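call fold(seq) -> tokens
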Amino acid sequence: MRSRRIARKDLFAGCAEPGPGDGLDPRLESREGPPKVANRKALLLCGEAERTLSSVLAGECGDDVLRNLLVASVKPAPTSARLLVTVYLAAPMEGVDAGQVLERLERARGMLRSEVAAALNRRRAPDLMFRVADGP
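ret:
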């Protein structure tokens, strides 16, 4: 019975110059794909919360100051049980500073959290913390 093994001289006969990867089995090489995202589920949760808060602040609030807010980002702080929501004023309003915006957000926290809870499919709704930024 003849050996199925390819002789070394026959192996290198098919190439002009042998390289460092010649003769290696490609199945044994490591596959490098896109790196895995750490905490992917928390990032998905933050994205859904950001979309929900953007729509609620845009139209469902009865407060003119809150309707003028845009959501810049939502990030887990430090876990997905608490979310840090960064907002900024879309257009500057006279007589309204960051302290007043935070006060109004604190008063509307319960309504905003219930809207986020309705949009998310979780056992417990995440707690919301707010931060007012200068701009986008």
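The chain has a mean pLDDT of 85.
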